[in-house]
Specification:
Layout (H helix, E strand, L loop, with lengths): L10 H22 L8 H18 L4 H32 L2 H11 L6 H37 L10 H33 L5 H20 L2 H7 L11
Length: 238
């Protein structure tokens, strides 16, 4: 039938979804592969994670390091659980699309068939599912990192101490990368929810999401602090 499939969507709808996907993938590449002369906050934090493992080798006792890893795992567990609940809510919404259509009719003009609303919800679910998988993998990697850290000899002079600590640092960085990807998927899941209001709303939401992510990675106060030279201490005099 001519009205089946993609025929229900306007060219603006398809263009908006394409922009959403390109923005999501493009900003990830930009953040993770930022120029060395203009690193992202994530890149800067990766260097501090490596430095953490350098200090970890000679730290005694190492209870502080185990507490930090525990906190990181708790963070990924929380977001994984919250995302799974959100996925369940979105899937439940698929079973009651008529109510959603009734609400949308009060906010938008025109009436779209049920398949259009199902596609919009499934797009949100896709981003949420990606986020959930990233959080779960990040949680597991932080667990691997904890095990490798526990295998680092207590003697800093042991030949295996530094190499194992470096391995732990790289696993830590990989876990953080997965966690950050999960967070970005949540951001774009929220942007995808704007499609319920129309293609124009989706484009606006994507632009806002991009602006927020780029600011936090390249123009935030935290990045400015991380970029500050080590000998450049703030004036604390009253």
């Amino acid at each position: 039938m001519p009205n089946d499939g993609l025929g229900h969507f306007t060219p603006l709808d398809m263009a908006a979804v394409l922009v959403l996907i390109l923005a999501w993938s493009g900003v990830t590449v930009l953040i993770e592969h930022a120029p060395r002369r203009f690193p992202s906050t994530s890149n800067l934090m990766a260097q501090y994670r490596r430095e953490w493992m350098v200090q970890f080798v000679s730290r005694d006792p190492r209870i502080f390091d185990s507490q930090v890893i525990g906190q990181l795992r708790q963070g990924t567990s929380f977001f994984a659980s919250a995302t799974l609940i959100a996925i369940g809510g979105a899937l439940a919404l698929l079973g009651d699309v008529e109510r959603l259509i009734g609400i949308a009719d009060d906010l938008t003009t025109g009436t779209d068939p049920v398949v259009v609303w199902e596609a919009k919800i499934l797009l949100i679910v896709a981003f949420l599912t990606n986020a959930f998988l990233k959080f779960v993998w990040a949680n597991r990697l932080f667990g691997y990192c904890a095990v490798v850290m526990a295998a680092v000899p207590n003697d800093p002079g042991d030949p295996a101490a530094t190499p194992r600590a470096q391995k732990a640092g790289e696993i830590n960085i990989t876990a953080a990368r997965g966690f950050n990807r999960g967070l970005r998927s949540l951001y774009f899941a929220l942007a995808a929810a704007a499609w319920l209001l129309g293609a124009s709303a989706l484009l606006v939401a994507v632009a806002i999401t991009l602006a927020v992510l780029l600011r936090r990675e390249f123009a935030s106060t935290s990045r400015t602090v991380l970029m500050r030279p080590e000998d450049d201490r703030p004036d604390t005099r009253s």
